[in-house]
Every structure is written in C-alpha cells, then in structure tokens.
Write a structure and sequence with these properties.
- By secondary structure, the protein is of the alpha+beta class.
- The protein is built from two helices and five strands.
- The protein has a five-stranded antiparallel beta sheet.
Length: 85
Amino acid sequence: MRMAIARQAKGLSLKIFIDKEPKLHYARILGKNIGHSRSTVKIKEEGSKLIIEITAKDTTALRATTNSILRDLQVIDATKIITRK
C-alpha cells in the first residue's frame, strides 16, 4: 500500500494505491462513489491496482473518512484469509 497526500484549493486530498486481488471487485464492495457532508471518496480499479481518492474539507474529515475506508479494507483482507483456509 502506498499513500500520497496533497493540499488543494477545496481542502485536502489523499490517494491510496493498493495491489488488488484479481477476483475481488473492490468498487462493488466499498461502493463506487461514497459521499459525506465534508468528504468524498472515489474508487477506481486500474489493472492490478486499486486507487482510492479521498477529498475532504478539513483534516478531521480526511482522518475520519480514511479510517472508515481502512477498516473496510481490513475486513476485506481478513475475509480473504478466512476463505483461503
């Protein structure tokens, strides 16, 4: 996993790059475009990479949305481990 953060005119932006499992459709599981009052999430699958872009008005909203997405990714990862056994 790799992350990149940037300050934009509208607030803050964070991109998370993940090597994805070929058989999983992350955008379906996480929801393609997730919107909150102070942040938005866009999910793209490009080849073997999953790109999650979070844009938020402030650092608190960015942190909360990032934590939510990371928790969802942990559940997906744990589910992969259980189903492999």
